Structure to design on (440 residues):
């Protein structure tokens, strides 16, 4: 497996959370823009401002099924003294040849149809007898069943103000307006707007492709039978889901056994479809920490700036971490610890911002707020470590969920925040104000 030169690791250095994150975000670069069809651009970040070529709506049109009328012809109309107008034709949505509405006349009009010349307002069909002479109508009869409905006379029972029930040309956006700003994440409403103004393709930064793999010979897939000493592989599922939630196209690789050569071969196979690689497990100091063994010596000394460095961070959980670039394209790789909580917290702090950076977003971090701690006892934290505890947040208060141990998957599943205890804090009393990272 080819790679740039290994980063020089200082085994005695204790990295801060901020320094490790800064190293990641200064290394990772936004993906190059591409032109995509609209549906393929869903979830991508817009590269350029998009201007409106044609106003929306592009013409005055009716917001109701009813009759297009002149205001003076229906002035003072009531059920006792209705205005009786000659129906001169139909105006359907998409109509090109429009009838003209003259004095004493009306045109039957459908929702979205252009306002015909001469008409000044639309009266809903419920304000009329629908041309049936039987009192207020509840709707129009289908043209296929009553083609004569576009002729004859209609009684109008209410007056109408000028422009009543008329959507004005450009009332949504006008030609020359900016429809969407560069940096916008394209969701369904934005895709709809682009289609509405006639854009079939758009220039975006593509969603990054993220490959996630777990390591460990003890891991088996869900639905298989557990044997002695085995556990189910949950990390790869959680992190793949988290990558997709962050906006990536994420691929999950089945757990790799504790064999350095197998892992190296697997990573090399995955490089072809990866903008970012994420491993979990095998980064500590044990005899079977395969990720560290497989990647520590990877590199080519003739090329600068690459390779994977394994570090100790001043945080809990998640002290052991790895980061670097590998392969001919210098693909970023983040190696996370194997305990479920450690890997997920590490993802939120380091991998998610990297994914959002690849997408080309300006704000890559989860929102943070201050909250009042609700707890039965003080929270404890080791001195010199930034601790991230799981919690639930509501109405300005946060409550811890589970303990500080890094294997508590069930507690993690019920948490929606991380409670942040700084490096210089060893105890926090109930009622104190703390910083929390909102996860949802």
């Amino acid at each position: 497996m080819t790679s740039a030169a290994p980063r020089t690791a200082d085994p005695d250095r204790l990295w801060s959370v901020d320094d490790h994150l800064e190293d990641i975000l200064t290394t990772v670069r936004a993906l190059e823009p591409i032109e995509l069809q609209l549906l393929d651009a869903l979830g991508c970040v817009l590269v350029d401002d998009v201007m409106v070529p044609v106003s929306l709506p592009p013409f005055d049109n009716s917001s109701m099924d009813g009759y297009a009328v002149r205001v003076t012809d229906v002035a003072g109309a009531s059920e006792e003294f209705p205005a009786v107008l000659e129906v001169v034709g139909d105006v359907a949505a998409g109509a090109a040849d429009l009838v003209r509405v003259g004095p004493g006349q009306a045109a039957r009009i459908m929702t979205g149809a252009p306002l015909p010349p001469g008409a000044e307002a639309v009266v809903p069909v419920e304000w009329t007898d629908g041309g049936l002479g039987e009192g207020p109508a509840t709707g129009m009869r289908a043209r296929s069943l009553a083609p004569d409905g576009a002729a004859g006379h209609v009684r109008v029972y209410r007056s109408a103000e000028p422009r009543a029930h008329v959507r004005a040309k450009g009332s949504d956006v006008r030609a020359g307006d900016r429809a969407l700003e560069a940096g916008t994440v394209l969701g369904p409403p934005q895709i709809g707007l682009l289609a509405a103004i006639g854009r079939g393709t758009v220039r975006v930064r593509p969603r990054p492709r993220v490959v996630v793999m777990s390591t460990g010979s003890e891991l088996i897939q869900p639905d298989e039978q557990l044997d002695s000493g085995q556990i189910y592989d949950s990390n790869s599922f959680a992190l793949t889901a988290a990558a997709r939630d962050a906006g990536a196209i994420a691929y999950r690789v089945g757990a790799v056994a504790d064999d350095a050569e197998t892992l190296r071969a697997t990573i090399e196979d995955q490089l072809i479809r990866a903008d970012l690689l994420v491993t979990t497990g095998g980064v500590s100091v044990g005899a079977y920490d395969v990720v560290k063994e497989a990647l520590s010596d990877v590199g080519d000394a003739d090329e600068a700036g690459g390779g994977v460095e394994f570090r100790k961070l001043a945080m809990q959980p998640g002290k052991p971490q790895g980061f670097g670039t590998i392969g001919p394209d210098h693909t970023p790789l983040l190696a996370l610890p194997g305990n479920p909580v450690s890997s997920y917290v590490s993802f939120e702090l380091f991998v998610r911002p990297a994914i959002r950076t690849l997408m080309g977003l300006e704000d890559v971090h989860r929102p943070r707020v201050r909250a009042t701690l609700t707890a039965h006892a003080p929270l404890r934290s080791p001195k010199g470590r930034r601790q991230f505890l799981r919690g639930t947040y509501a109405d300005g208060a946060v409550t811890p969920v589970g303990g500080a141990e890094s294997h508590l998957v069930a507690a993690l599943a019920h948490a929606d925040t991380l409670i942040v205890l700084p490096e210089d804090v060893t105890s926090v009393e109930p009622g104190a104000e703390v910083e929390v990272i909102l996860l949802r």
